[in-house]
Amino acid sequence: AETMTALRGEWQTLQAECPDLTPFQTWEWNEAWWRHFGARKRLHLLRFTHENRLVGIAPLYTSFHLGTPLRRLAWAGTGQGDYLGPLT
């Protein structure tokens, strides 16, 4: 996804500063997950900034839930990741 690629540098800087980082919060894992499982989903990257510096990111997506017209909001990595949540 272009938005994920555009955030690569900032995301990697933030993850390098995170003492409780898990593999499932890294740009590399999220980008690979999105590339393989992102079909028919819409990416939503919530960026949290302070004084123009990225201080948090929440990788989410929306999709249709189980083939119904209902929309679902979920963490990127749902189904394949152990720890899903924001990187702060």
Describe this entry's structure for a reader.
The structure is a single chain. This protein has 88 residues and is of the alpha+beta class. The chain has three helices and three strands, in the order H-H-H-E-E-E. Strand 1 (42-50) and strand 2 form a beta hairpin. The two termini are 21 Å apart. The model has no long low-confidence stretch (mean pLDDT 93).
Cα-to-Cα separation, first versus last residue: 21 Å
Please give the number of β-strands.
3
Number of helices: 3
Q: How would a crystallographer describe the biggest sheet?
A: 3 strands, antiparallel
Q: Quickly give the structural class.
A: alpha+beta
Order of helices and strands: HHHEEE
* Overall outline: globular
Instruction: Report the radius of gyration as a whole number of Å.
Output: 13 Å
On the 0 to 100 scale, the average pLDDT is 93
Question: Which bin fits the share of residues in helices?
Answer: 25-40%
* Side-by-side strand order of the widest sheet: 1-2-3
List low-pLDDT spans.
none
Beta-strand content bin: 25-35%
